[in-house]
């Protein structure tokens, strides 16, 4: 997005992304870091996939509820982190890796904080599910939104009108590359 309107729009997207990111993280803190009154607390689960296997052994409803909750808790970060960064032109794989890594670190931070709260335990499966949820949300939403924003920005650009005075028009630039294409056409070299 170029020009004064494009910069303002990018700034608005970043501000909206940052505000929504802070609101979501505040909600997650409130939801997960509250003390829970329980008669007993099991030990921390540090074996990967142990809790998921136990949930699947109980019932499909219990498994869907706990796995779905784990996937959905931090999934909005998959969209809000790139929105707060405000990059429309980003390599998809690099964006996914950055977002998944940040989501994993946030999930790990919440898990470590939860282990200090009364009635809460550390569970490695929660970290795994939260990270997968962030990555899935990113893959499902961000590339499509970025493509839509690029098409919208390309539609806003106006091609220069041809000149009738015999002078050569300026060489158009390729929008996403930022350089002019090579051309051997010159009004003085051809006869």
From TrEMBL:
Keywords, comma-separated and alphabetical: Membrane, Transmembrane, Transmembrane helix
Transmembrane segments: 12-33, 63-84, 96-115, 127-149
Disordered: annotated span: 159-191
Protein name (record): VanZ family protein
Domain of life: Bacteria
Pfam families noted in UniProt: VanZ (PF04892)
Start and end residues of each VanZ-like domain: 22-141
Annotated source species: Streptomyces iranensis
């Amino acid at each position: 997005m170029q020009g004064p309107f494009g910069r303002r729009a990018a700034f608005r997207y970043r501000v909206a992304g940052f505000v929504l990111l802070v609101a979501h993280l505040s909600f997650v803190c409130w939801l997960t870091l509250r003390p829970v009154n329980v008669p007993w607390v099991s030990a921390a689960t540090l074996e990967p996939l142990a809790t998921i296997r136990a949930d699947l052994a109980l019932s499909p409803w219990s498994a869907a509820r706990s796995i779905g909750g784990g996937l959905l808790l931090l999934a909005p970060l998959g969209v809000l982190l790139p929105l707060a960064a405000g990059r429309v032109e980003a390599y998809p794989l690099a964006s996914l890796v950055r977002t998944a890594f940040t989501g994993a670190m946030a999930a790990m931070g919440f898990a470590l904080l939860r282990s200090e709260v009364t009635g809460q335990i550390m569970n490695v499966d929660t970290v795994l599910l939260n990270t997968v949820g962030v990555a899935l949300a990113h893959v499902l939403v961000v590339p499509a939104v970025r493509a839509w924003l690029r098409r919208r920005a390309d539609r806003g650009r106006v091609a220069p009108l041809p000149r009738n005075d015999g002078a050569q028009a300026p060489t158009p630039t390729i929008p996403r590359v930022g350089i002019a294409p090579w051309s051997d056409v010159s009004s003085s070299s051809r006869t």
